[in-house]
Design a protein that fits this description.
The chain folds into five domains: 228 residues, no CATH class; 90 residues, Immunoglobulin-like, CATH 2.60.40; 90 residues, Immunoglobulin-like (Sandwich), CATH 2.60.40.3780; 108 residues, no CATH class; 202 residues, Sandwich (Jelly Rolls), CATH 2.60.120.200. It is 12% helix and 45% strand. The protein has nine helices and 48 strands. The strands form nine sheets. It has a nine-stranded antiparallel beta sheet with strand order 32-33-36-46-38-39-40-41-45, with no helix packed on it. The longest helix has 20 residues.
Length: 791
């Protein structure tokens, strides 16, 4: 009975220990959102200790016990260095002559340093590292391997393995006969490789691992405060949970090809009954796929499928409709996505290429004609009618075949909205289209002559401008009771570059409250001088004009996205540029997250799951800028702007703050050679608004960083400076504000964010300094003069 109790206790203890491998990395150190890469040579033995206890554990020989000897620091370091070298060769080239020679050299070194007792032969220890059953294994190159379901876990069977670090080794002897297990807990590196396939993993950082059926050698070196450990050998099963786990050879993701209909294909017949595609995997892994369509015409999925062609039954196609189908394929390690579109054939006549374009603004008042194209894919003769409102032209024709149609127009006025209607039939099917456009004003005009009643002079103080700048978006943030005379949405507010007959300056209104005369607006100033004051004029008080703001023309072409973050997060997060890089909120953000910001309104992020997601749009950029206003009191990590991959934690790029009040830039692709982590302790957690900017000048030209308008230098981990590397070579599929949009380690921001912009050029130091001065204190940057009524 007693034996049974002991046996059960041992088994229960083993279960507890093995379960601990799932939680130990979180206990060994802070569970950071972005683990810094460690060097494989980071194991350090303090030189202050002349002699300490060195232990040798033997696994797989029941008649050999643990041996403790006093060893100098130099000798311990030499043994650990030799173990690293042997570990690398055993897991990468287990059958090579060099590996065999290193085994002999390692045992010779142990004997030379008197770690092996005199009564035990070196061959006895060498047999642990060179067992006969390993020599008899065929090196088949078979691709079979265990699945790796978690990004931070590595598992290998029938493998060679080794590791070293700071922590402990725990031998476990399972009765009734000596089958051996081994557990290690610590911070360091371990690696394992299948002896048949060569596939394996490398684990780094805080980790816990265990083996079953382990044969080999373990060493440890006791230093006051902690213990260094190392081990090398073979196991039936080895598994490690760690901060970072990389599998090798690197897994090759599945490929999708030969899609039918082809991406972008037009005039797809309505009788089409299936979608078709081919999937393959260079590693010959089995794959699972999912296909969805929008609008929904069918879907499909398959599990553990080999290389081949697969189909998706579809039905219900509608003429002249664009369909999107999304294919996702995974081999259990990597996932490949492909989104394709096709458009069905047209049965009714096609109306296309309207001129002016639908919704076009600032159309010249002297435009002589409207224009559009007609086409019937069946070759039928068509009849059409064009009407306008207000009436500026009309046209009707019959017996028309494919053609470009023009409609003479006349009698347009400045600042008006026009609608024109096209109705066409082939005798059976009708098509109807409505288009609108707005006329603008002359290139030079006097607003007083077109219905405006008031103006004010605005003066930008040249002492606030760091250098001469062009096409600069100036912030005006004011409360002026005179502006209560403007339209209720501020649509009549207009900016001109001079009094009287002058040229328009385009602007965007971020916020206007007529009841108070409160205005937040951005005005594109063609030229700012650092040597003399710049003067322009604001007009208002025209009850009959159309809306005068042009956000898409306010921001110069280098701006790829401008987010004021002043929208209700339940809806679309609007990009003010012409690029329409709009986003959507994630994590359950509500209207309560729309709060007072640095300029107008901004968004609050809870640090748990709030973020804003965008479709990737910077894939071709090699130079660029991310600039933002931030406010936080938390000491944790947080991404202001992120670029990532939704299916894996790498690659990514992050601009934000790190722990301990550090300005942070990070960029990494899969692997260890492309890791760039930069940090700079700075006062960011004080609950005040700060401006931060991250810039790339292109590969070979460096990166620069700014805080509150001033340049700062980051300290690069391991000396790895990205030297101008930016978005261009990142195989990512998402952008985000307030987090990294990836499976884990999302780095959620806690606090407020406002006025985030992305440019495709590195902004100059003068530009950033002037932005800070203007946006930090708009009242000191410019002066608004008294109201001047029109004549």
């Amino acid at each position: 009975m007693k034996g049974i109790v002991i046996k059960v206790g041992l088994v229960f203890g083993l279960v507890i220990v093995l379960l601990s491998t799932n939680i130990t990395p979180g206990l060994l150190g802070r569970s950071s959102d972005l683990v810094q890469q460690k060097s494989a040579d980071a194991l350090f033995i303090p030189t202050s200790q002349k002699n300490s206890v060195f232990s040798l554990n033997v696994f797989g020989k029941t008649n050999q016990k643990k041996i403790d000897v006093a060893l100098s620091t130099d000798d311990a370091t030499l043994i650990f260095d030799k173990l690293k070298e042997l570990k690398s060769e055993m897991t990468q080239h287990p059958y090579s002559e060099e590996t065999h020679s290193l085994k002999i050299a390692f045992i010779d070194l142990l004997a030379e340093k008197a770690v092996i007792p005199n009564e035990v032969s070196k061959d006895a220890y060498l047999s642990l590292l060179n067992p006969r059953w390993v020599e008899r294994l065929p090196n088949t190159g078979n691709t079979l391997s265990l699945p790796q379901p978690y990004a931070n876990r590595g598992t290998s069977i029938l493998c060679s393995l080794g590791g070293e670090g700071t922590g402990i080794l725990i031998p476990l002897f399972l009765l009734p006969r000596p089958r051996i297990a081994m557990l290690w807990l610590g911070t360091g590196f371990s690696s394992a490789a299948n002896l048949l396939t060569g596939k394996g993993y490398i684990a780094g950082g805080a980790q816990a691992g265990f083996t079953l059926g382990f044969m080999g050698i373990g060493i440890s070196y006791a230093v006051p405060g902690y213990t260094l450990y190392g081990f090398i050998g073979y196991a039936l099963l080895a598994s490690t949970t760690a901060e970072e786990v990389a599998h090798y050879p690197p897994n090759r993701a599945p490929e999708i090809s030969d899609a039918q209909p082809a991406d972008g294909e037009q005039n797809v017949p309505l009788i089409t009954t299936k979608l078709q595609f081919r999937i393959q995997d260079a590693d010959a892994d089995l794959m699972s796929y999912t296909v969805t369509t929008n609008p929904d015409i069918g879907s499909a999925n398959g599990n553990l499928k080999p290389f081949g062609v697969y189909t998706v039954p579809i039905s219900g196609l509608v003429d002249l409709t664009q369909y999107t189908w999304h294919i996702q394929v995974t081999d259990g390690k990597d996932t490949t996505d492909q989104t394709l579109t096709f458009t069905t054939e047209a049965i009714a006549p096609i109306i296309s290429n309207p001129m002016p374009a639908d919704g076009e603004r600032d159309v010249p008042m002297d435009l002589p004609q409207l224009q559009f194209s007609l086409k019937d894919y069946q070759g039928d003769a068509m009849e059409y009618t064009v009407e306008t409102t207000p009436n500026i032209g009309f046209k009707h024709e019959t017996g028309v075949h494919d053609a470009t149609i023009t409609v003479p127009i006349s009698g347009m006025t400045y600042g008006a909205t026009y609608r024109w209607y096209v109705n066409v039939t082939d005798g059976t099917h009708w098509t109807r289209k409505l288009f609108t456009f707005e006329t603008g004003y002359p290139s030079l005009f006097d607003p007083y002559e077109f219905g405006w009643n008031y103006r004010k002079q605005i003066t930008i103080h040249h002492t606030q401008v760091a250098d001469d700048l062009e096409n600069y978006p100036v912030l005006i943030n004011t409360i002026d009771p005179d502006l209560m005379k403007a339209q209720d949405d501020g649509g009549d507010i207009l900016f001109m570059n001079g009094p009287g007959v002058a040229k328009r300056q385009y602007h965007e209104i971020e916020n206007f409250e007529q009841t108070m005369g409160s205005l937040v607006t951005w005005v594109n100033v063609p030229a700012l001088s650092s040597s003399q004051d710049m003067v322009f004029y604001m007009y208002y008080g025209n009850p009959d004009c159309i809306n005068q703001q042009y956000p898409e023309k306010t921001w110069n072409p280098s701006y790829k996205a401008v987010w004021h973050l002043n929208n209700n997060p339940i809806g679309t997060i609007v990009d003010s540029t012409a690029n329409s890089n709009d986003g959507i909120s994630k994590g359950g953000m509500t209207i309560s997250d729309l709060v007072d910001g640095k300029t107008g309104k901004c968004l609050h992020f809870d640090g748990a799951n709030d973020y804003i997601s965008f479709t990737e749009f910077t894939g071709s950029l090699n130079t660029g800028t991310c600039i933002a206003w931030v406010k936080t009191t938390t000491n944790g990590i947080g991404a202001v702007w992120g670029e990532a991959k939704t299916t894996t934690d790498k690659p990514y790029i992050a601009c934000g703050k790190y722990y301990d009040d550090n300005l942070w830039f990070a960029r990494d692709v899969y692997g260890t050679s492309s890791n760039y982590q930069g940090f700079k302790p700075i006062e960011m957690n004080d609950g005040q608004w700060h401006q931060a900017a991250w810039l790339s000048k292109g590969t070979g030209n460096g990166n620069t960083f700014y805080f509150d308008g001033q340049p700062v230098s980051l300290n690069w981990q391991d000396g790895n400076d990205p030297d101008g590397m930016w978005f261009d070579d990142q195989s990512t599929d998402s952008h985000s504000i307030g987090a990294l949009d990836r499976p884990t380690s999302r780095s959620h921001w806690t606090g407020l964010l406002d006025e985030i912009r992305i440019t495709d050029t590195p902004l100059s130091a003068a530009w950033i300094a002037t932005e800070y001065t203007n946006q930090n204190n708009p009242a000191d940057f410019l002066n608004i003069g008294p109201e001047v009524p029109g004549p």
